[in-house]
Amino acid sequence: MTITDPLTQDRQNSTDTAPLSLKRILVALDASPFADRALGEAVRLAGAAGGVVTGIHAYAARLHDHRFRQMEGGLPERYKKEGEMEHQRIVHDDLITRGLGLISDSYHDAAQGICDKADVPFRRLSPEGKNYRRLVEAASSGDFDLLALGAQGLGIMPGTVIGTVCERTVRRSPIDVLIIRKPQSAIGEGPVVVALDGSPRSFGALMTGFDLARRFNVRLHAVAAYDPYFHYVAFDKIAVNLSKEAGETFKFKEQEQLHEEIIDSGIAQIYQSHLDVALSVAKDEGVELTTELLEGKPYTAIAAYLEACGASLLIAGKTGVHADPDLDIGGNAENLMRISPCNIWLTLSTFTPPFDAVARETISWTDEAEAKMLKVPETARKMVRMAILRLAQESGHTVITTSLIEEATNRFCPDRGGSAEEAKAMGWSDAAKAMLDKNGDPSVSASIRLSAEKRARREHSAVVEIAHVQPFIEGGAAPAPVWDAAALARLSRVPEMVRSSVRRRIEAYAAEAGEGRISITLAEDVIAESRKAMAGNMQMGGHKMPPGRDV
């Protein structure tokens, strides 16, 4: 089948479900600040779409009755006379049944008033039973598009990151869920950030982001996060415990090299391609989009980005590119549900960008190419396949051959000679050693050491500095320093290919010096040091600094 104009193709003819409808919103009520914010956002969303808000509050009268019956044996003697016992049962039943019903009605009455002021229709649900079960039943009814609820409720305790009702409900919900983690923050007070990993659900999140950007005139960002360190550390651990015979059977060295070439060298460009596709779709949708490629453990890198940009909402797929059919929630989504510094929207809606849709419909693979793909590590196969499809369409090919795979490999993995470099021992600065020693956990220090050395090599540094160690020590980084406008302007003149590493070096220097603000003077000093280090590294390799190339 040939699709001649995918951008104008009616989306109703596809299996994609994004952008999500906002006409039927279910919101969990319990009078907590989290639930109140969930109601407020539900009213805004439904109001913008001409929709309806349904409030739900479940109360477990039968559970209380059962508990009372269990406690009857422990009542004082004066209550154990038959007449008195029956009287107490009637009173308790009346108080619980009518009392809990009145509480539920009061929650609905308050929500009704808020909806009436916004001219949004409001409906009521007050089911009896276990709260999370009734929430999931309502979400599964087919009557709602979105469930809004608080991450915590009236039972919030210091140190708690998420309530049991929220977690149980989110795992089981068959519809999108808006989780209120920061009740003091409304959607739009900061940027809305979409997390992309190339999966249809991540692009479904993007389409929902476009819809919110248009309706509420909010700033929209898209990020893609990849981890170039995990497989390096994992292979090092495997190598220690693998016998020579097992290594030869497993073809360990070949597997390690494949991971170095594909996962390590090419994954950044594959994830950058997701952002490029997002920018292309954003242009067609008429929405301004800011993109950023992040490096590190995805959920920690995304959480740090949300904190740094002051995000008001994160939208992400409930599962991602590596999900299997039985998975209820992805690892990154689950962790972000717990640690996100802003509210989070987990979506099940899907969207296939026209670029990818055309490639999948019009491009075929030779048997030899399919066989070659089987040699790609399974953890990266989906991503690599997507990248090759995009290259084929870009080049005008309709059949993927082994030569096209080689071309893609050369494009995404231009540096194929990392093994010798990886084998060289890395030197450590005294400050970096001290930071590693302060970690205090021997079980993770070895992994931190390997990851830091990997980062140093990627940045062509001769030694490991604190800037290379800091990102891998959980909780070790001080709050991000504030940049003066002049310092940021100076950083913007640093070549893009090294700008992120220079920024990390400046922020690490500020942290070490106890500086909470980065001035133009501090930035210039670190940039000068970076320039010297770069020149020294190039001269050690027999190269001269190219004229006009400076940081």
How does this structure look, described?
By secondary structure, the chain is α/β, with parallel strands linked by helices. The chain folds into 4 domains: 119 residues, HUPs (Rossmann fold), CATH 3.40.50.620; 163 residues, Rossmann fold (3-Layer(aba) Sandwich), CATH 3.40.50.620; 59 residues, Orthogonal Bundle (Helicase, Ruva Protein, domain 3), CATH 1.10.8.550; 115 residues, Proto-chlorophyllide reductase 57 kD subunit B (Helicase, Ruva Protein, domain 3, Orthogonal Bundle), CATH 1.10.8.550. Strands 3-2-1-4-5-10-9-6-7-8 form a 10-stranded mixed beta sheet, sandwiched between helices. A two-stranded parallel sheet has the order 11-12. Strands 13-14 form a two-stranded parallel ribbon. Helix 1 links the parallel strand 1 and strand 2. Helix 2 runs antiparallel to helix 3, helix 7 runs antiparallel to helix 9 and helix 10 packs parallel to helix 11. The longest helix is centred in the first third of the chain and has 36 residues. The radius of gyration is 28 Å and the shape is globular. 39% of the residues are buried. The N terminus and C terminus are likely disordered.
